[in-house]
């Protein structure tokens, strides 16, 4: 394996725990301390080691995917310094030190994953997504390649309904796949432009757009105010409404949201 150096602090186990917290994620398969991901038709194996992660194979094609998957774009040092002055976040960043929220490297995967998570529990979302991946994706070693946009564009509503999507969600997924929206080009746009482009598609609302900004583009000010767990965190930990909290946590809304939600979900 080749060493991919990672900016400190970084806790691999903490950061990748989401991939099995709500059931095995077939597209990001974490077995023991090894993470398996399909990249361009190849299985990539990732394992923690001092100074970063071991990646096999590591090359110009796999490097950017793995860096994004493991949350490399997040700048934790300045966030931690800022969070130290917040009575709620300060103990959380100590408890979760080195937690880099994982990112979804592919924009189509990110949006489809959000569709599967609309108005269902996280356990249900993972189960539905896994059936979707098995039905329309391709197995690559221990991992599964997430279904391509082209494959879903050619699927029928009945086929997608059969793996657990509602009729409407199946319609949304096919509509996204068949749309003319250049998903890769969204990375070049400002946050508000991304929101406008995403929400112009049927079935993709503000919640989906914010999570796309947060978990694909790693935008610092992304704030999924419609998320029920984040609303609970705002109410229980701060005693304020989620919109007010978002303004208070500027300019680190994205990382704050991930740390607060992780804190809420892991509390006894």
Question: What do you see in this structure?
Answer:
The protein is α+β, with helices and mostly antiparallel strands and 268 residues long. It has three domains: 2-72; 75-99 and 220-268, Endonuclease Iii, domain 2 (Orthogonal Bundle), CATH 1.10.1670; 107-204, Hypothetical protein, domain 2 (Endonuclease III, domain 1), CATH 1.10.340.30. The protein has helices spanning 12-16, 18-21, 63-69, 76-83, 89-95, 107-117, 122-136, 149-153, 157-161, 167-178, 191-199, 206-215, 228-238, 242-248, 253-266; strands spanning 2-5, 28-31, 34-39, 42-49, 52-56, 138-140, 143-145. It has a five-stranded antiparallel β-sheet with strand order 1-5-4-3-2. A two-stranded antiparallel sheet has the order 6-7. β2 (28-31) and β3 (34-39) form a beta hairpin. The longest helix has 15 residues, at 122-136. The mean pLDDT is 96.
Describe the structure using short key phrases.
alpha+beta; 3 domains; single chain; Endonuclease Iii, domain 2; globular; five-stranded antiparallel beta sheet; 12% strand; 268 residues
In a few lines, what is going on in this structure?
The chain is of the alpha+beta class and 268 residues long. It contains 15 helices and seven strands. It is globular, with a radius of gyration of 18 Å.
């Amino acid at each position: 394996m080749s060493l991919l150096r990672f900016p400190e602090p970084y806790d691999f186990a903490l950061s990748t725990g989401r991939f099995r917290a709500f059931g095995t994620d077939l597209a990001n398969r974490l077995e023991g301390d090894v993470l398996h991901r399909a990249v361009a038709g190849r299985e990539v194996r990732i394992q923690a080691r001092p100074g970063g992660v071991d990646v096999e194979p590591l090359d110009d094609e796999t490097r950017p995917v793995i860096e994004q998957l493991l949350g490399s774009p997040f700048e934790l040092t300045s966030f931690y310094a800022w969070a130290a002055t917040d009575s709620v976040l300060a103990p959380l960043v100590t408890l979760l030190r080195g937690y880099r929220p994982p990112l979804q490297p592919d924009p189509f995967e990110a949006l489809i994953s959000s569709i599967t998570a609309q108005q269902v529990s996280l356990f249900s979302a993972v189960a539905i997504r896994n059936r979707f991946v098995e039905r329309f994706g391709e197995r690559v070693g221990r991992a599964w390649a997430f279904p391509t946009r082209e494959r879903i564009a050619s699927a029928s509503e009945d086929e997608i309904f059969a793996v657990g999507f509602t009729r409407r969600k199946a319609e949304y997924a096919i509509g996204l796949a068949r749309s003319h929206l250049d998903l890769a080009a969204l990375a070049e746009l400002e946050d508000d432009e991304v929101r406008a482009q995403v929400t112009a598609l049927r079935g993709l609302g503000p919640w989906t757009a914010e999570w796309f900004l947060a978990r694909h583009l790693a935008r610092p000010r992304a704030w999924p105010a419609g998320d029920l767990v984040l609303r609970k965190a705002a109410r229980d930990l701060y005693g304020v409404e989620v919109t007010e909290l978002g303004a208070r946590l500027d300019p680190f809304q994205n990382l704050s949201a991930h740390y607060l939600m992780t804190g809420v979900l892991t509390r006894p």
